[in-house]
Amino acid sequence: MDTVRITQKGVAHFGTGHPWVYRSDIRGNSPEQAGIVSIEAPNGRFLAQALYSPRSQIALRILSRDKGTIDRRWFAGKIRDAVALRSTLLIGSDAVRLVFGESDGLPAFVVDRFGEVLSFQTLCAGIDHFRDELVDILDEELKPRSIIERNDAPVRKIEGLPLNAGVVRGPAPGRSKIREGGVSVYMDPLQGQK
To answer: Would you state the pLDDT for residue 91?
Structure first.
């Protein structure tokens, strides 16, 4: 795992609990490839593990403030925790946001359920590096009929990522029926705003 050292100003910002470290707060060289890095203070003290994006001004997105292993099992646990939390909210709909980025400890990763269809976004290069693994986890844990990506958000251009929207697993969902309270609504998860 690469290590990124940040400035004292970056340490102060990090100390407020903010989930990001900006490129201007990186001291010295940084990796060329997206992925997970270890963050250190100027004195070499470990601070956190983060997703690293080589082109973004939001260079580091905090995953964990401890040294534990971040792997497939870790990602699956975070997804399970997020889904379990949403199940306690008693939302009267089968269209619901299941994973909401930083608020669920999975920066720049968003997952919505529309009935039997899951729609996801990977909005930074760091999390996009794990795209295929995350799709596998969603498929195994939630067993949807289809998984689609709506990676057509303009912010991906800033990250140096292509814009994509389409079916990743299962059949094309087409027009799907979702329930909102006592009302059934038809929608196409590949069209319109996610």
So the answer is: 79
